[in-house]
Amino acid sequence: MDTVYALATASGRAGVAVVRISGPQAHAACVTLCGDLPEPRIASLRVLHDLAGARLDEALVLVFAEGASFTGEKVVELHLHGSIAVVSAVLRVLSELPHCRGAEAGEFTRRALENGRLDLAQVEGLADLIDAETEAQRRQALRVLSGDLGKLAEGWRRDLIRAAALLEATIDFADEDVPVDVTPEVSLLLAGVKSQLSRECEGVLTAERIRTGFEVAIVGAPNVGKSTLLNALAGRDAAITSEFAGTTRDVIEVRMDLGGLPVTLLDTAGLRDTVDVIEEIGIRRAKERAALADLRVFLLDGNTVPDLLLLPGDIVLRAKADLLDDKTGAVSGMSGEGIESLVEEISKRLSGRLSSLGIATRERHRVAMVRALEALGDAEKQLQRGPDMYDLSAEDMRHAIRALESLVGRVDVENLLDEIFSSFCVGK
User: Fold this and answer.
1) How far is CA 72 from CA 24, 108, 111, 192, in A?
2) Residue among 413, 427, 318, 402 at smallest CA distance from 124
3) What pLDDT digit, counting tens, does each position of 281-322 carry?
4) Which of its termini does the chain have fewer beta carbons within 10 Å around, N or C?
5) Right CATH number for 215-354 from 3.20.20.140, 3.40.50.300, 3.40.50.1370, 3.20.20.70?
């Protein structure tokens, strides 16, 4: 493989910039720049020179041996002064070296996958960790990056291989007197794997919400204070407010961190009957987004009844608490009354959903596990039909094993790789 290099830290002026080099000629490139090769894993201060011997920078150089690096290849990291000019000069020299080229987006991580340093689920966890904005996202990404999903899948795979092997051993000795009935043990193994798979499938939706953010819709009649409340929660003027009803025509989204959870607040058009075509479109969109939201906050003004069916779990509050004598169960974006209690209630409601959280985090994971569950259901049916169907049951188990292998990238994922790695930056 080629030796590749790239800036591994953000572009622009900084205190430190890290250039990563990976591949068979990485150590040779280091010698060219530094004059020698520092001891592996020991950061050493070196003066870097270009091919003509001119001084480039004084940098910390960190060397990794093959098999002991992130990519699994020979790797060198140059910790430079974070000057745009310094970084450009070092990259220019690297481009002049034979067998060296600039890395493509995600190429370092892809090499880690190809060299067995990460499985595909860990790659996805790494992408999620880089994108993490909240504490819940960070914790979830680290669980996947640490290999927990791969370990779980390997345990399922091991149990299914044993179950299939027991059946095939019975088939191989069908003409002999085999005293042991393997059906109970095989049934127990299948039931255990199916139970765990089902539990993980149920937790994917919550895990995806942590990745992409929970949606909380603020719903109510026109001019009830929805946009003012959104602005108060967001801490900025994200939505236009006025004394005229029907100001909000489209769904306004504000992403924020509530109690460590990623939340997208939705300010929707006021719900009422109208002859304004544009406002009617906004009201229809408001109802559609509110129906799909994870949580809805209804603002009621006086005795108004919302033009939307209340569901269990909805938060219902009286609007404009600053104008009320009795402020029980009321909120005001204008004065801030009730805001803290509302934030606590939203956080409490959403945090309660984390009890079903599993390790699998993506729809791709759920699809693979559902495929495995379907194959295991077929395997159980064939198993109950007796020894004559053991060969078909074992074949269904192999289909389930293949589905689980696709979960961590062993098979059937080539078409996914370009899409996954395109989300990484060049230096990762």
Assistant:
1) 11, 10, 8, 35
2) 413
3) 666 777 778 788 888 888 888 766 666 667 778 888 888 888
4) N
5) 3.40.50.300
